[in-house]
Amino acid sequence: MKFSLVVISTLFACITLPISALELNNSLHSIVMDANEVLTLDNTADFSATDVSDVKTERLGPASLAVYAPEKAGFYSLVLTNSHAERTLMVIVKKPFNAKNKVLNNYQIGTYPAPYKNNPQYSAPSGLIEITEQDLTRQLTPHVQVRNVICKQVSGFPKYLYVNNDGLMMLEDLLKFVQREGIKVTKFAFISGYRTPHYNRSIGNGRHSRHQYGDAFDLYIDENGDGRMDDLNGDGKLTIADVDVLYKLFEKFQKQSRYTGGIGRYKPAAHHGGFVHIDNRGFPARW
Fold this sequence. Notes:
The chain contains 5 helices and 20 strands. The protein is an alpha+beta fold. Residues 1-18 have low confidence and may be disordered. The chain has helices at residues 5-14, 146-149, 165-180, 197-202, 240-256, and strands spanning 19-23, 30-33, 38-42, 48-49, 56-61, 64-68, 74-81, 86-93, 95-96, 103-104, 107-108, 127-131, 139-141, 144-145, 159-161, 189-192, 216-220, 262-266, 275-279, 285-286. 18% of the residues lie in helices and 29% in strands. It has a 5-stranded mixed β-sheet, with helices on one face.
């Protein structure tokens, strides 16, 4: 899709736009944006957008592109090429959401609480991702589909989801780290991803549960497909000791990465195996 760079340049000259930034790296597969948002995509020195892209871009400098989100919510493709490679990023434009409302298109959202200790990391999202039944198999990352992280509340379609860019990249970086540490895992299994405030209250979870904010996930490893945590410590039993193995790896990951947040261990129960919670709340928490 062609777009006049003259128009864009004039726009920059007339107004100052709030611009967030992401780096093009191997962990970046999707970009979550608000409608009409402008985002800076760094580390793009030798890449340019192709005409088949659904998303408008402009070269900002030697290593940066401006990415302009469409006005309409939905899933779009941004195709970047250089002399030896092609990268296709999925640009996800959220549907605007007013946090004062409890319902979006007949889907129960509930009420977001005031930010925890006035921390902006706990602000209600400005938009939510609209999901049809056909969207459930979309790849948010190479190893995570929409169905892995969508809220479990019972409803028809469309449903609504919130995940943020750092949350998605954290999942990819975490998987690579665990693999490098010698654990056999092709992808994580999920107990929980996003929860609406409505669903979060219905299961008795904490008022400020990080699952409401797009970067919290309850994970386990299930290479044999039995729906429970694998025997990670090799003792022939499925116990909390296997959870501890993953918990310690998640702690090591946060110490060595740019992600900071909560990590929690959960023992096996009758209705689920053991799992580990991880989030990117911006300050450490352990349980």
